[in-house]
Amino acid sequence: METQMKFGFKDKKRIFSVIIAVILMGLSLSFLIRLNFGTDPCSAMNLGISRHLHLSFGTWLVLFNFILFILVILFDRSQIGWGTLANMLLVGYSADFFRWLFDFILPDNAFTALSIRIVVLIPSLLIFVLAAAVYMAVDLGSAPYDALSFIIASKLKKIPFRIIRIAWDMTACLIGFLLGSTIGIVTVLIAFLLGPVIAWVKEKINRFL
Protein backbone atom coordinates (compact mmCIF):
# COMPACT_ATOMS: atom_id res chain seq x y z
CA MET A 1 0.00 0.00 0.00
CA GLU A 2 2.75 2.40 0.99
CA THR A 3 4.62 1.84 -2.28
CA GLN A 4 1.55 2.53 -4.38
CA MET A 5 0.78 5.68 -2.38
CA LYS A 6 4.28 7.09 -2.92
CA PHE A 7 4.11 6.27 -6.61
CA GLY A 8 0.72 7.93 -6.82
CA PHE A 9 2.05 11.27 -5.56
CA LYS A 10 4.69 11.32 -8.29
CA ASP A 11 2.29 10.51 -11.08
CA LYS A 12 -0.02 13.53 -11.18
CA LYS A 13 -1.57 12.64 -14.53
CA ARG A 14 -2.79 9.29 -13.27
CA ILE A 15 -4.20 10.74 -10.05
CA PHE A 16 -5.95 13.52 -11.99
CA SER A 17 -7.36 10.94 -14.42
CA VAL A 18 -8.70 8.83 -11.56
CA ILE A 19 -10.37 11.78 -9.81
CA ILE A 20 -12.05 12.97 -13.01
CA ALA A 21 -13.09 9.39 -13.88
CA VAL A 22 -14.78 8.65 -10.56
CA ILE A 23 -16.60 12.01 -10.56
CA LEU A 24 -17.85 11.25 -14.09
CA MET A 25 -18.96 7.83 -12.85
CA GLY A 26 -21.00 9.60 -10.18
CA LEU A 27 -22.43 12.02 -12.76
CA SER A 28 -23.51 9.29 -15.17
CA LEU A 29 -24.76 7.13 -12.30
CA SER A 30 -27.03 9.96 -11.16
CA PHE A 31 -28.76 9.80 -14.56
CA LEU A 32 -28.84 6.00 -14.70
CA ILE A 33 -30.62 5.93 -11.34
CA ARG A 34 -33.23 8.43 -12.54
CA LEU A 35 -33.79 6.63 -15.87
CA ASN A 36 -34.68 3.38 -14.09
CA PHE A 37 -33.11 1.06 -16.66
CA GLY A 38 -30.78 -0.44 -14.05
CA THR A 39 -27.24 0.33 -12.93
CA ASP A 40 -24.05 -1.65 -12.50
CA PRO A 41 -24.42 -4.63 -10.10
CA CYS A 42 -22.53 -3.01 -7.21
CA SER A 43 -24.58 0.20 -7.37
CA ALA A 44 -27.84 -1.75 -7.68
CA MET A 45 -27.06 -3.65 -4.50
CA ASN A 46 -26.00 -0.56 -2.57
CA LEU A 47 -28.96 1.50 -3.73
CA GLY A 48 -31.25 -1.16 -2.30
CA ILE A 49 -29.36 -1.36 0.99
CA SER A 50 -29.13 2.42 1.39
CA ARG A 51 -32.89 2.81 0.92
CA HIS A 52 -33.64 0.20 3.58
CA LEU A 53 -31.17 1.81 6.00
CA HIS A 54 -32.56 5.29 5.24
CA LEU A 55 -29.08 6.57 4.39
CA SER A 56 -27.99 8.55 1.37
CA PHE A 57 -26.38 6.46 -1.36
CA GLY A 58 -23.05 8.27 -0.88
CA THR A 59 -22.95 7.79 2.90
CA TRP A 60 -23.82 4.09 2.72
CA LEU A 61 -21.30 3.55 -0.11
CA VAL A 62 -18.50 4.98 2.06
CA LEU A 63 -19.50 2.70 4.97
CA PHE A 64 -19.82 -0.32 2.66
CA ASN A 65 -16.45 0.36 1.04
CA PHE A 66 -14.81 0.85 4.43
CA ILE A 67 -15.99 -2.61 5.54
CA LEU A 68 -14.65 -4.20 2.35
CA PHE A 69 -11.49 -2.06 2.59
CA ILE A 70 -10.62 -3.75 5.90
CA LEU A 71 -10.96 -7.16 4.26
CA VAL A 72 -8.73 -6.09 1.38
CA ILE A 73 -6.07 -4.85 3.81
CA LEU A 74 -6.16 -8.19 5.61
CA PHE A 75 -5.87 -10.35 2.49
CA ASP A 76 -4.09 -8.38 -0.25
CA ARG A 77 -2.82 -4.84 0.30
CA SER A 78 -1.37 -4.71 -3.22
CA GLN A 79 -4.90 -4.05 -4.49
CA ILE A 80 -4.98 -0.68 -2.69
CA GLY A 81 -3.90 2.65 -4.18
CA TRP A 82 -5.08 6.21 -4.72
CA GLY A 83 -7.72 4.92 -7.11
CA THR A 84 -9.16 2.82 -4.28
CA LEU A 85 -9.60 5.85 -2.03
CA ALA A 86 -10.97 8.04 -4.84
CA ASN A 87 -13.57 5.42 -5.72
CA MET A 88 -14.54 4.86 -2.08
CA LEU A 89 -15.10 8.53 -1.31
CA LEU A 90 -16.14 10.24 -4.54
CA VAL A 91 -18.45 8.02 -6.61
CA GLY A 92 -21.36 7.87 -4.17
CA TYR A 93 -21.23 11.47 -3.03
CA SER A 94 -20.81 12.67 -6.63
CA ALA A 95 -23.94 10.72 -7.59
CA ASP A 96 -25.81 12.23 -4.62
CA PHE A 97 -24.68 15.73 -5.51
CA PHE A 98 -25.64 15.50 -9.18
CA ARG A 99 -28.99 13.89 -8.33
CA TRP A 100 -29.71 16.80 -5.97
CA LEU A 101 -28.56 19.32 -8.58
CA PHE A 102 -30.65 17.91 -11.42
CA ASP A 103 -33.68 17.41 -9.17
CA PHE A 104 -33.36 21.10 -8.31
CA ILE A 105 -32.95 22.22 -11.93
CA LEU A 106 -35.14 19.79 -13.87
CA PRO A 107 -38.91 19.28 -13.50
CA ASP A 108 -40.20 16.10 -11.83
CA ASN A 109 -41.48 14.70 -15.14
CA ALA A 110 -38.24 15.34 -17.06
CA PHE A 111 -37.59 11.62 -17.59
CA THR A 112 -41.15 10.38 -17.92
CA ALA A 113 -41.24 9.95 -21.72
CA LEU A 114 -39.61 6.75 -22.95
CA SER A 115 -37.99 8.53 -25.93
CA ILE A 116 -36.25 11.03 -23.64
CA ARG A 117 -35.13 8.28 -21.29
CA ILE A 118 -33.52 6.38 -24.18
CA VAL A 119 -31.84 9.50 -25.58
CA VAL A 120 -30.36 10.31 -22.15
CA LEU A 121 -29.48 6.67 -21.50
CA ILE A 122 -27.02 6.32 -24.38
CA PRO A 123 -24.53 9.06 -23.36
CA SER A 124 -25.00 8.24 -19.66
CA LEU A 125 -24.10 4.60 -20.22
CA LEU A 126 -21.14 5.46 -22.46
CA ILE A 127 -19.76 7.95 -19.95
CA PHE A 128 -20.12 5.47 -17.10
CA VAL A 129 -18.40 2.63 -18.96
CA LEU A 130 -15.58 4.84 -20.28
CA ALA A 131 -15.03 6.51 -16.89
CA ALA A 132 -14.98 3.14 -15.11
CA ALA A 133 -12.54 1.83 -17.71
CA VAL A 134 -10.21 4.82 -17.22
CA TYR A 135 -10.28 4.42 -13.45
CA MET A 136 -9.36 0.72 -13.78
CA ALA A 137 -6.86 1.18 -16.61
CA VAL A 138 -4.57 3.64 -14.82
CA ASP A 139 -3.62 0.92 -12.30
CA LEU A 140 -3.80 3.00 -9.13
CA GLY A 141 -5.68 0.41 -7.11
CA SER A 142 -9.06 -1.25 -7.31
CA ALA A 143 -12.31 -0.38 -5.57
CA PRO A 144 -12.81 -2.74 -2.60
CA TYR A 145 -15.75 -4.42 -4.38
CA ASP A 146 -13.54 -5.20 -7.40
CA ALA A 147 -10.49 -6.05 -5.28
CA LEU A 148 -12.34 -8.77 -3.38
CA SER A 149 -13.26 -10.54 -6.61
CA PHE A 150 -9.53 -10.64 -7.50
CA ILE A 151 -8.67 -11.91 -4.02
CA ILE A 152 -11.29 -14.66 -4.20
CA ALA A 153 -9.95 -15.67 -7.63
CA SER A 154 -6.41 -15.88 -6.22
CA LYS A 155 -7.66 -18.31 -3.56
CA LEU A 156 -9.77 -20.41 -5.96
CA LYS A 157 -7.22 -20.87 -8.71
CA LYS A 158 -9.01 -23.80 -10.35
CA ILE A 159 -12.02 -21.63 -11.17
CA PRO A 160 -11.63 -19.14 -14.08
CA PHE A 161 -11.76 -15.50 -12.99
CA ARG A 162 -14.63 -14.68 -15.35
CA ILE A 163 -16.79 -17.32 -13.61
CA ILE A 164 -15.94 -15.90 -10.20
CA ARG A 165 -16.64 -12.36 -11.38
CA ILE A 166 -19.97 -13.33 -12.93
CA ALA A 167 -20.99 -15.10 -9.72
CA TRP A 168 -19.82 -12.07 -7.69
CA ASP A 169 -21.83 -9.64 -9.80
CA MET A 170 -24.87 -11.91 -9.97
CA THR A 171 -24.89 -12.11 -6.17
CA ALA A 172 -24.87 -8.31 -6.01
CA CYS A 173 -27.69 -8.19 -8.57
CA LEU A 174 -29.75 -10.69 -6.59
CA ILE A 175 -29.33 -8.71 -3.37
CA GLY A 176 -30.23 -5.49 -5.19
CA PHE A 177 -33.29 -7.11 -6.79
CA LEU A 178 -34.52 -8.51 -3.47
CA LEU A 179 -34.16 -5.05 -1.93
CA GLY A 180 -36.16 -3.38 -4.69
CA SER A 181 -33.45 -2.08 -7.05
CA THR A 182 -34.01 -2.15 -10.80
CA ILE A 183 -32.01 -4.85 -12.60
CA GLY A 184 -32.38 -3.95 -16.26
CA ILE A 185 -30.76 -3.60 -19.65
CA VAL A 186 -28.06 -1.27 -18.30
CA THR A 187 -26.94 -3.93 -15.82
CA VAL A 188 -26.53 -6.44 -18.63
CA LEU A 189 -24.79 -3.99 -20.97
CA ILE A 190 -22.28 -2.93 -18.32
CA ALA A 191 -21.48 -6.58 -17.59
CA PHE A 192 -20.70 -7.23 -21.27
CA LEU A 193 -19.15 -3.89 -22.28
CA LEU A 194 -16.84 -3.07 -19.40
CA GLY A 195 -14.21 -5.75 -20.04
CA PRO A 196 -13.55 -4.94 -23.73
CA VAL A 197 -13.69 -1.18 -23.10
CA ILE A 198 -11.12 -1.47 -20.28
CA ALA A 199 -8.71 -3.24 -22.64
CA TRP A 200 -9.21 -0.56 -25.34
CA VAL A 201 -8.90 2.35 -22.89
CA LYS A 202 -5.81 0.86 -21.26
CA GLU A 203 -4.04 0.75 -24.63
CA LYS A 204 -4.98 4.37 -25.41
CA ILE A 205 -4.36 5.83 -21.99
CA ASN A 206 -0.90 4.27 -21.65
CA ARG A 207 0.20 6.34 -24.66
CA PHE A 208 -1.11 9.52 -23.06
CA LEU A 209 0.30 8.81 -19.61
From TrEMBL:
It comes from Anaerocolumna xylanovorans DSM 12503. PANTHER family: INTEGRAL MEMBRANE PROTEIN (PTHR40078:SF1), INTEGRAL MEMBRANE PROTEIN-RELATED (PTHR40078). This is Uncharacterized membrane protein YczE. InterPro entries: YczE/YyaS-like (IPR038750). Keywords: Membrane, Transmembrane, Transmembrane helix. The chain crosses the membrane at residues 15-37, 57-75, 82-102, 114-138, 183-201.
